[in-house]
Amino acid sequence: MTEAKEAILLVGGKGTRLRPLTVHTPKPMVPAAGVPFLTHQLARARAAGVEHIVLATSYLAEVFEPYFGDGSSLGLQIEYVTEQEPLGTGGAIRNVASKLSSGPDEPVLIFNGDILTGLDIRALVTSHTVSGADVSLHLTRVEDPRAFGLVPTDATGRVTAFLEKPQTPEEIVTDQINAGAYIFRRSVIDTIPSGRPVSVERETFPGLLASGAHLQGMVDSTYWLDLGTPAAFVRGSADLVLGRAPSPAVPGRCGDRLVLPTASVAPDAKLTGGTVVGAGAVIGAGARVDGSTVLENATVEPNAVVTDSLVGAGAVIGARTVLAGAVIGDGARVGADNELRDGIRIWCGSTLPDASVRFSSDQ
Q1: Cα 312 to Cα 330: distance, rounded to the nearest angstrom
Q2: What is the pLDDT of residues 102-129, one digit of tens each?
Q3: DSSP conformation letters of 57-106
Q4: Among 49, 107, 169, 355, which residue's Cβ finds the most Cβ atoms within 10 Å?
Q5: What confidence tens digit (pLDDT) does each residue in 62-109 have?
Q6: Distance CA 275, CA 294 (A)
Q7: Is residue 208 within 8 Å of 193, Cβ to Cβ?
């Protein structure tokens, strides 16, 4: 069997590192390439043969179901389970187990709601089935693994250890990290303690390994990006538009730009680098927008320059203002002739007067 018919999608995080994008919107619902990021994950799961998905929600849980409903528009059956108290990754998986109908030995796909990946889901299921594993993990290789937990494997791909974030060169025994997608044998989910917080990374996986369970790793490094920071989120959206990150849910052809219906772009404005312009947004004459996301009903006034930035819904960027690596919250107003760079964030609803900020990294 090379398909997992059921999946659990963990979408309960608060997205603290993404604020102010996540003040009004849970992280998986922030638009990437013109649709909520979660849409890309659901569409990729469906393309891999998944039919039933349970969303494990917590923060701003009430926004998911009105948007996705029963999932039929995506060819899926979607159910929702909301945590009353945060349960961690393992606790969230255990909390939704009663919604699954798979038999004890059948594969269940589990993935995190903040990872953009080109993972071949069917190949992970096949690896899981052929190896006879209890749990299979998608692993990816990274240049600098110090920020991640390491997952070394033997010659057959069997996981040999779970190592917390390494601090010294001697501790970096592999460049393989946990990439946030798993196949669980259905019966293994029931071994996770219920009713309390559990970390699948720090408790469940090491515990299974210690008990002699078979954990298999499959390395797939086609494309992988943790969308936990605004800069990464903007890059992920651009990569979806450019076609670097695969998704059947991009609402248009891949290319340098994605302009949604009802947006208005001046004829001499330049949109490049996977830029997205949301519905009802306005891009003024002479504006240049590169590698950026301009959300719905936002305005970029004439001759503004926006690079690698995110402009929130309904926000206004004044004429001749320069944004580089900036995040502008929903409804904020940045006056004309400002310069905002290097990760600066403007909170939702804030107002910056004309020519009030000249933020430059060389000052």
Answers
A1: 4
A2: 999 999 999 988 888 989 999 999 999 9
A3: E-TTGGGHHHHHTTSGGGT-EEEEEE-SS--HHHHHHHHTGGG----TTS
A4: 107
A5: 888 889 999 999 999 999 988 888 888 899 999 999 999 999 999 999
A6: 8
A7: no
